[in-house]
Amino acid sequence: MLKTTPVPAEPDASPHAEGVSNDEFRAAMSRLAAGVCLITAHEAPTAPGGPRGEDVGMTATAFLSVSLEPPLVLVSLREGSRMDDLLAEQPLWAVSVLADHQLQIAGRFAMKGRISDRLLFADLPYVRGEASGAPLLNGALATLECRTENRVEAGDHTLVIGRVLTAALPSPDSGPLTYFRGRYRHLG
Ligand SMILES: Cc1cc2nc3c(=O)[nH]c(=O)nc-3n(C[C@H](O)[C@H](O)[C@H](O)COP(=O)(O)O)c2cc1C
Fold first, then answer.
1. What's the angle, vertex CA 151, arms to CA 117 and CA 136, rounded to 5?
2. What Rg, from alpha-carbon coordinates, does the chain have?
3. Ligand 1 centre from 58 Cα, in Å?
4. Residue 146 in contact with residue 95, Cβ under 8 Å?
5. Contact criterion met (CB below 8 Å) for 182 and 170
6. pTM of the shown model
């Protein structure tokens, strides 16, 4: 069972510590090179015989390994994003760690304001995870299927902590897709 403990404020914190502007914060964080992932989940049909369910995807860099025993990972989702709303309702999701040749996939699943992901998945090669029902991309460096163990509200995001149910290496020798200073990059 996970517990969340608030960190007490430092009595001698710098007066500037809470005065950082959005631009300063973004610029600093843009210097943290990150691997790029596609988070996926399958939204079950609302009613038997009704409209069929839909696969949902979201490009994310805020994904990390948390614990080995048990195997836990964390993804940070913008509150109110479609993935955040979906994972508030159902616990199964998956991660495809993108390879450098999957840059266009990252771009299409980062578009804001799209209504449906049906067309975005239509021409993508993927298999459906047996544990999660979510799409796992062929050609990804690694794929993981997860079940949510805990959700923590953090500012304008939700931290979703998931237990890893399966892990696989569809294309282990490809190079990673990374994001650095506001651009997708290939290593090397
Ligand atoms: C490189 C990159 C990394 C991103 N990382 C995250 C992330 O970690 N968490 C998140 O909530 N959104 C992240 N986003 C934004 C989402 O991909 C984007 O808001 C979402 O796909 C649009 O769907 P929505 O309208 O439901 O938010 C990232 C976008 C890009 C381009």
1. 35
2. 18
3. 6
4. yes
5. no
6. 0.91
